[in-house]
Structure formats: structure tokens, C-alpha cells
Design brief:
The structure holds 2 protein chains of 2 kinds. Chain A is mostly helical. Chain A is built from 4 helices and no strands. In chain B, a hairpin with a 2-residue loop joins strand 1 and strand 2. Classes of the chains: A mainly alpha, B mainly alpha. At the A-B interface, helix 1, helix 2, helix 3 and helix 4 of A face helix 1, helix 2, helix 4 and helix 8 of B.
Chain lengths: 91, 223
């Protein structure tokens, strides 16, 4: 028996990801802006793309909170880990 | 979130009590949590070495072939979409469409690995190796004339090949898992609208590999 569920707009998300990738390339190699600004914008675009994949392709947007927490917890831990390493060697 | 969407996201077999997620899926999420820490160690080491390096760091555009990697990034995004389409197809009760999209994902993943191997050969041929720049190569000339910084090329080579190599290994594992799903489970009709945990669990891994590449591409190739 065939049942049709309502799914997120996967092709629209794909289009967003493609456009954001082109925007990243244009930003990295074409736009004449300062290096620090470029770095911030590129990281922002990468996080945006990663969030789109996690929310819609990995379905985190539609999962229960217990699973979302399991997915989210390692991210701040990883950031603390990197920041701690940087504090020792750079700052 | 609509009720229809919520039920679409939950396969029609019983979840474990308490967490309301079936074991295979929960296991994959715990594994992915450990993978976040694994890639954080690699990316963190790169960031610390790069921004703490004594001197300039090579501009990626000079050493790496950005165009081919940008195409590879797009390819991986496309394969992520085809994987989620396979999941949507089987949850809608269409195994034929699921097999088609799964095969497309395998082809996309295999092409990604193939292009990465080509990229590695190309880089080594031009003198960029995990140990830095090879003596007498094209890139060694650029180091001599000051276009590339001599002091940090060793660090650059080792971090670049470690990060992209481990990611490539993950993609290869994903392609092998999906090929197993396709030939051993999907073709004989063992993946059904009543039980498609394999597609969902391997799909989660595949999207995670895509997600990591999105971050790596920006940090290694664009910044």
C-alpha cells in the first residue's frame, strides 16, 4: 500500500545550499573586502549551510527534544575544546 | 511542525521506551556525537597551528585546485539530497524510487572519492605532499621566489592531508555502507515501507559526512 507523507521541501533546500556555495566562492575570491570580514562571513555561510543539512536532511527540526539535545551537546563541547587550545597557543 | 510531518519522520516500527527512538538510530546519533569530537580535534588542531604559526600561511588558491573541489562540494550536496529522496521514497511506500535514489547517492559518493584521489595525485605531482613541498617541484620554485612561505608549508601539508584524508575515508565508508544496503538489502526487497531503518541510519551518517565537508571546504579551501 502506498502512503504519501508530507516531507520538507528537499529540492528547495538543495537550491539554497547551491546558492550559498556560489556565494561562498564569490566572497572568497571576488569581493574586495577586508580579510577579517571575509573570514567572519565565510564562517557564517558555512554554519548556515551546516544548519540546513542538520535541520532538514537529518530531520533535527522534526525530532523530539531528547534527540536534538544529544545532537547539540557535542557542538559547544567541541568549541570549548578548540577555544581552550587556542588560548594556550595564540592568545 | 504538522502532525503529518512528525509521523513522516518516524518510521512505522516501535521505538524503545523512554527515549522514543529506536536503538539503531539512537546508536548512530551517539556515534555521530563522538564523530563531532573527532573532527573537532582535527579542525581545532588546524586552526591552532595555522593562527599560531610563526609567519605567513600559504594562500589556498595558489596550492589547491579550488574549482575542482567546489564541484566536488556541489556533488556531495547533490548526493545528500538524493539520499534524503531515497528516505522520502521508501517512507511513502515506493521501493523502486528508493532504489533509484540510493544508486544515485552511491554514484555521487564514489565520484567524490574518485575526484579526491585525482586531486591528491595532482597535488603530489605538483610537489605538495604531507611533508610539505617536494624539492625540485613546481611548488618548490614558488617557495624559492617567495610566493609561498617556506616556514609553514610542512604544517600546511600535514594538516591538509590529515583532515581531507580522514574525511575521504569517512566518505569511502559511507559508499561501502550504501553499496551494502543497495545490493544486500534493497535489491532483494528487504527494505520495506514497514522497516527502512537502514536507509534512515546510513542516511544520517551520509548527511553528517556532507555537513563536515561543508565546514572543511570553508576552513581549508576558502579561508
Amino acid at each position: 500500500m502506498e502512503t504519501t507523507h508530507k516531507h520538507p521541501p528537499y529540492l528547495l533546500i538543495w537550491l539554497y545550499l547551491a546558492i550559498l556555495t556560489v556565494a561562498e566562492l564569490a566572497l572568497a575570491f571576488e569581493l574586495p573586502i577586508s580579510r577579517n570580514m571575509k573570514l567572519l562571513l565565510l564562517l557564517f555561510l558555512a554554519v548556515w549551510k551546516a544548519l540546513l543539512v542538520a535541520m532538514f536532511f537529518m530531520h533535527l527540526k522534526f525530532e523530539r527534544w531528547n534527540l536534538r539535545i544529544l545532537a547539540i551537546i557535542p557542538v559547544p563541547l567541541a568549541l570549548i575544546f578548540i577555544a581552550a587550545g587556542m588560548s594556550e597557543h595564540i592568545w | 511542525m504538522t502532525h503529518a510531518m512528525a509521523s513522516a519522520m518516524r518510521p512505522p516500527f516501535p521505538a524503545e521506551r523512554g527515549v522514543d527512538v529506536y536503538n539503531k538510530k539512537l546508536g548512530m546519533w551517539v556515534f555521530l556525537a563522538s564523530e563531532v569530537m573527532f573532527f573537532a580535534a582535527l579542525i581545532g588542531s588546524y586552526v591552532i597551528l595555522r593562527f599560531g604559526a610563526p609567519g605567513e600561511w600559504a594562500r589556498p588558491g595558489i596550492v589547491l585546485n579550488i574549482k575542482i573541489t567546489a564541484f566536488n562540494t556541489f556533488l556531495l550536496i547533490c548526493s545528500s539530497v538524493s539520499m534524503v529522496k531515497a528516505y522520502a521514497a521508501i517512507s511513502d511506500g515506493d521501493p523502486r524510487k528508493m532504489r533509484f535514489w540510493l544508486l544515485m547517492t552511491i554514484i555521487g559518493g564514489a565520484m567524490f572519492v574518485g575526484i579526491q584521489v585525482y586531486e591528491y595525485f595532482h597535488l603530489v605531482e605538483h610537489g605538495f605532499t604531507p611533508a610539505g613541498v617536494r624539492e625540485g617541484s613546481e611548488l618548490a620554485e614558488l617557495v624559492k621566489d617567495g610566493t609561498l612561505p617556506a616556514a609553514t608549508m610542512g604544517l600546511y601539508g600535514s594538516t591538509f592531508f590529515t583532515m581531507t584524508g580522514f574525511h575521504g575515508f569517512h566518505v569511502t565508508c559511507g559508499v561501502i555502507s550504501m553499496a551494502y544496503l543497495y545490493f544486500v538489502k534493497a535489491l532483494p526487497g528487504k527494505i520495506t515501507p514497514q522497516d527502512y531503518a537502514g536507509i534512515e541510519v546510513v542516511g544520517l551518517y551520509w548527511h553528517f559526512v556532507d555537513l563536515v565537508w561543508i565546514i572543511l571546504f570553508t576552513i581549508v579551501y576558502l579561508i
